[in-house]
Amino acid sequence: MSGTTDLVMPRQVRSAQLLLFGLAFAGLVVTLALSGGLTSYGMGNMIAPWLLVWVCALLALTYDGSARGGVRITTIVVMVFVLVGSFSQASGAAAPGEFLDAALRIALGVPVVVLLFLPETTAWFDRAK
Description:
Strand content: under 5%
Helix content: over 70%
Number of helices: 5
């Protein structure tokens, strides 16, 4: 064990965590801003990908404590599902609001996935208890 450096979260992990928190907050703002005039079906279509983002943000709450490799892999897999759906939504967007909604998830989601694949991040989640 190399002392206190094992106890300090690497900046790559902290960045991924902060991006997920920011994305979750942005999802709340976007949902509230674009919800006017939507049917229940339209609201469900808009909220569905954000629910997955909020799950990832909840997982990110554990990054500095008990989280291990399974939490990292789960976050990556869920974010990949969010990104695939967002790319599909962005390419078929009929209104600027729909495109902005998907583009926000893409712009903040891709860096999260990249950060979670870095060696420093992998080492943090694979550290000894």
